[in-house]
Design a protein that fits this description.
A: 341 residues; alpha+beta; four-stranded antiparallel β-sheet; 12 strands; 29% helix; 23% strand; globular; B: alpha/beta; Elongation Factor Tu (Ef-tu), domain 3; Rossmann fold; seven-stranded mixed β-sheet
Amino acid sequence: MSESSILQRASLGAWLEAMGRAGRRVLAPVQEADRVVFGTPSAPEQIATGFVQTPGSAKSVVFPPFDEMLRFRTNGEDVHVEEPSIAAEPTVLFGVRPCDAASFATLKAVFTWDSPDAWVESRMANLTVISVSCTQCDEYCFCTSVGGGPGSTQGSDILLTPLDDRRWLVEVLTEKGRAAAGLAPQLFAPANGEAASKEKLLAQVPVRFEAKEVAGELPSLFDHPEVWKEQSLRCLGCGACAFVCPTCSCFDIQDERVRDQGTRLRCWDSCGFRLFTLHASGHNPRHVQSERWRQRVMHKFSYQPERLGVTGCVGCGRCSRACPVDMNLGEHVRRLSEMSV
Amino acid sequence: MTTFSTAPSASERRNLYTPHKMRIVKATDEAPGVRTFQLQFVDSEVGARFSFEAGQFGEYSVYGEGESTFCIASSPTRTGYIECTFRQAGRVTSALADRQEGDIIGFRGPYGNTFPVERWEGKNVLFIAGGIALPPVRCVIWNVLDLRDRYRDVSIIYGARTVADLVYKHELAEWDQRSDVNLWVTVDPGGQTPEWTGKVGFVPAIVEEVRPRPADTIAVLCGPPIMIKLTLPVLAKLGFAPEQIYTTLENRMKCGVGKCGRCNVGKVFVCKDGPVFTLAQLNELPPEY
């Protein structure tokens, strides 16, 4: 359904205003102290553009770090329970990278297979993703190894590609995208062959491995503990990789209570933590850190592709940028892909 | 902003994680730190709609403390209630252990697959359990005993560390009295009391001594990893094929519905594809359980 047009960067304010008038919440990368985070910009100038990648991902829009699942108040032997509404606020996520747009397919697969999670489903249904192609990358980026690319349209409702510092090439990709552009149709001018120059404008992200091939090779490496030990000896098990990851979706369920009132929370968790799989008996199926690293890699690059038909990685490189001991997922998987057993 | 209400409108999708309220109608102390609750749905309509099969599990919760995963320890042949048996080990089970008859707790489920008891009709059924792993097996034992004429020999080998640690002591006595049940109860060496008349020895050794015959027999094996590890070679030596041996994996779980990410063994979700597996199925999985 791709339709190309041109949008002046100076028109962004008018477009965002139109979205606001139409009742949509707008989230975009904004500068906060020395970091770029997803927030609500009060003016288009606040939207950050000169970054390779935000440190945190956009997954919190559909899967926040803490989700209230229930509220309750105990009353003698009985308990009064309230449930949160499933309804989600119509939201426009503006200015994410194509890798983040692609991550929603993985999240959707996890949360809607078999028994659909109504909250995530509803937030996704009410989400419009307007992403911006990458004209720069860094040594951590590997989207092209996992089926994505710096100008990939996967997961986006609209993709903008900067043509120069004044104009974007606009690709409207879905019905939701058409609705968002339709809020201010006068801002979009017909494209005159600019679409042809898109590829030349994009960052060059080298291909390190082919995720599809890796998926087939990894099971044979499972029983080679030395491989996983060598890769993870320096892993601290801090979980930073999972918290910045746009596709990591493992969670814990915890209650918080003050006297007779409390809430049940779904909180982000990580397979890198020892407690993640620890049994009450003391037995732990993933007893050492290398087994937890193996789970992380296998889950993303073998189990999820086989089971859910999605790769659990979009190559954004956040995990590697955030890692305090400089583990690099793209490089680690490349080396695994070169091992033959 | 998220709004909260006691009754979401019918047009809204159901919150997967909302527990049903259940009342503790009977609480039994089984062993030191081990209790059994008999539970009934507070909402009788929910209770009337509820059904489960042998081997399924649920998430039991104390509001304000959290959820814990246990099997349903009662048999689906006994309707109108469910039972769970748990050992006090952490925050939630400690709070549960403090609950008394009449108190309300949360339950969501049933989750997971089941023991195919109907396919076992006409066969001998051998149960082997250790310690706190008798509850998931007990569900199947009563299911089989309540339909006793559909099965041939029913044998139970159960062991615990000490006499005090044996759970369901009244039921062990009842099974012992029945002429249609072969029962061997054992405690680990040193775990016996002067009055103890049962066996003394580890479960694998007792299995070797009892020498159950594999022909037309299903073995349901459940216990701590070390007991499973040492019992499997005994069963293999006796001639049991991996397809004849069933177990239930008790992996740590949070959601119960294939999302939270911790119970998997390779690509298999224990909460959805399990918890019941044959040894033949487990042999296909990566050795990570």
